Write a sequence for this structure.
């Protein structure tokens, strides 16, 4: 599967950006590389382009709401995660405190490079909260990661 990827780096993070008509979605990515989320917490800032509504079953299984975010328990099965499209996730080894996490602002359609106040604010929150990964899937898919092994795995998978 050869897919054209745009790569970049910022503040200790590496980025992979699929766009220009390539249909790679977040659900496909985590099914192909479940280690992105397995054993970690996922903060969902957007699902189907809006806040994710938790069900009673999800709340009973450990999901919680922090501001507009839906926070997963530690992921043991990727089917725990909703992937309707237009998703924005922040993946953590350990969750930041609730006050800092509640300030996370939605950036689903963001183009993370270039010069703008919105881009600067996005990178400031990434640097503050220090997620292992940020996954933004809208009309494009963007992976931002601190994990060099994950970066290389994804790059290799989509370059072969």
């Amino acid at each position: 599967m050869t897919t054209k990827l745009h790569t970049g780096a910022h503040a200790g993070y590496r980025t992979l950006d699929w766009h220009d008509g390539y249909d790679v979605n977040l659900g496909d990515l985590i099914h192909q590389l479940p280690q992105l989320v397995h054993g970690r917490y996922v903060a969902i800032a957007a699902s189907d382009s809006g806040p994710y509504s938790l069900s009673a079953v999800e709340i009973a299984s450990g999901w919680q709401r922090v501001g507009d975010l839906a926070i997963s328990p530690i992921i043991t099965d990727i089917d725990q995660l909703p992937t309707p499209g237009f998703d924005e996730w922040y993946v953590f080894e350990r969750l930041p405190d609730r006050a800092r996490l509640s300030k996370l602002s939605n950036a689903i359609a963001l183009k993370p490079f270039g010069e703008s106040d919105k881009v600067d604010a996005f990178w400031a929150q990434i640097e503050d909260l220090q997620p292992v990964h940020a996954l933004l899937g809208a009309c494009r898919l963007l992976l931002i990661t601190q994990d060099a092994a994950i970066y290389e795995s994804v790059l290799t998978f989509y370059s072969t």
Observations:
- The mean pLDDT is 85.
